[in-house]
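User: My notes are a mess, but here's the protein and adenosine-5'-triphosphate's SMILES. Can you give me a structure?
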Amino acid sequence: MADIVISDLSKMYGGKRVLDRVAMHIVDGEFIAVLGPSGCGKTTLLRLLAGFETPDEGTIQLGGRVVSSREANVPPEKRNIGIVFQNYALWPHMSVADNVGYALKIAGVNSQERLQRSREALSVVGMENLAERAPSDLSGGQRQRVALARCLAAKPSVMLLDEPLANLDVHLRAAMENEFVRFHRHTGATMVYITHDQSEAMALADRIAVIDRGRLVQFDRPRDLYREPQSEMVARFIGNGQVLPVRDVRPEAEAAIVSIFGKDHRVRARRSEQVRSSAKLSVHTSAMRLAQPGDDGFAGKVERVIYRGNHSQVDFIATADPALQLTLHAPADVAIPADDTIQVCIRDGWVIPAAA
Ligand SMILES: Nc1ncnc2c1ncn2[C@@H]1O[C@H](COP(=O)(O)OP(=O)(O)OP(=O)(O)O)[C@@H](O)[C@H]1O
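Assistant: No problem, the inputs look usable. Here's the predicted complex:
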């Protein structure tokens, strides 16, 4: 069993609380992403999980055993954890196969088993034909695959991946995303994937932990994060979400009537939503459109229109609130001059629980 239980975990650096009472339970075999803006504490969490750092408060349990606490720290090599960093750190003077088998050699695995496990691992990542190559003769994606195979050969029950695609170009990233999914299916390992790229996290993870300034602000399935953000930070961070001020929240079962710039709309809300005079609404770009004749919309002034191939991106400012910059997607062939006034219709929104 490789479930991970993190309880009230805090880490200080020079008096600053970099991780603040983080608590989460990662289920055995789950693929989770840790997502958050630069400097929020993602790598610190990974270093604590790996055993490179000791917490100031709280504990980490791996498979039911406390491995990190203020009093005791099981060293990294005793945690059965594999780690893949963004710089692949392959030994340049060793072949691909030797790179993959090196850790096994150090661990005293005999040469026959070493060969067998290295071969298997390389075949999982589709690199068995390049076993004798030197790392310098591989592409970035291939090197990252070798780094994955090296991890795999050690048969870890938990894999930590720290922005493993950060150095790859956009096409390779897509190919490697598939590779990670395949890898996860094959190994059944518990995967913890650190990234600041929310589309990568959405594509890969069963659940995403969003961290903001050292705090875990939401830990949910991608769909729930997207549709039901619990705070304004998550609403803005996930899927280019936009946030609108609304007034006069009147809850109905799992919905609410809210006033958007003086007009009533029915939107989604949590079951326990309260009557309140003001709130914030999470609205995705795809949930806004140009109003049709007869629609009840609000007015906006167009700032610019960008042709994006399958749609046109319309950036505009709400006439009733000039500080509010918004974006909607219109048909690709739409012809709207800048400074024009448009009417905008909202088709779907979510009343953010923790924002007034
Ligand atoms: N060894 C250290 N000593 C002092 N401060 C540190 C140390 N390591 C990290 N920090 C600080 O802790 C905070 C969190 O850093 P961390 O590297 O965990 O963030 P991150 O979310 O991984 O950021 P990024 O996405 O930019 O890599 C930052 O303010 C960083 O400057």
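Residues 242-351 form a domain with the OB fold (Dihydrolipoamide Acetyltransferase, E2P) fold (CATH 2.40.50.140).
User: Great, I'll file this with my notes.
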